[in-house]
Amino acid sequence: MTKRTVFITGGASGIGFGIAQAMSKAGHHVIIADINEQAAQRAANDIIRENGSASAIEVDVCNAQQVAALPDLLKEQKVNVLINNAGIQHVSRIENFPPEKWQQLINIMLVGPALLTQAFLPNMREQNFGRIINIGSIHSLVASPYKSAYVAAKHGLLGFAKTIALETGDCDVTINTLCPAYVKTPLVEKQIASQAKENNLTEEEVINKIMLEPMPKKQFISLDELSDTAAFLMSDSARNITGQTMILDGGWTAR
To answer: Which GO terms describe its biological process (predicted)?
Structure first.
């Protein structure tokens, strides 16, 4: 595969960092973008210590001015692949959901990907190559109680990807959304604790009765599965796969 420059939001930890590590091992240069500059630099340094190629940049994906300035800030580093991964979670009944927190989730996980696509798409068109990969969720397809903002944002990513796929049909740019069931990351670990409190269950009961219960395979999705699927979408063999929802759910939505 041609070596690419991969820009990953929320790349300092969790799914983002796991994908960054895999991309660097495949020979790509990864730009770790995170709202926490120190965390982004630590992640980049970890990759460099493993003989990978990485750099770090601080960005608030909700800040339109910051995002628009990224192509000029990166200068000669032309982004070929954008991975919209940044995300947060808040678990609450809608009656008690803080309005500012609801808005924050939408801004990070739906508005942010739109702003980043807007920033990097012109150069992708100029190069006649680009891959935009959104990290969605099983909650892009189904819902769970107490996650109204997260579910709304992740559902929105699918409509966004379909629209941009139509707008980029004239060039070798694709946009797709990876939709995994639960991946064992720090974000999910926090969800387990929150769900246990909200549902009056033990954490083990949350894992078995809520998270893995709908999955015939009864397994958390691995980072390797996500990074390998992303790598395929970057390849020339995937040049006509666009606007699609790539579901890694252990059979959840087959029910």
So the answer is: monocarboxylic acid metabolic process
**How would CATH label the architecture of 5-181+221-249?**
3-Layer(aba) Sandwich (3.40)
Could you report the per-residue pLDDT of 206-229, keeping only the tens digit for each?
A: 999 888 999 999 999 999 999 999
Catalytic residues: 150
Instruction: Tell me the domain boundaries of the chain.
Output: 5-181+221-249
87 vs 2 pLDDT, higher one: 87
Give dist(CA 75, CA 219) in Å, integer.
42
Residue 238 contacts residue 232 (beta carbons within 8 Å): yes
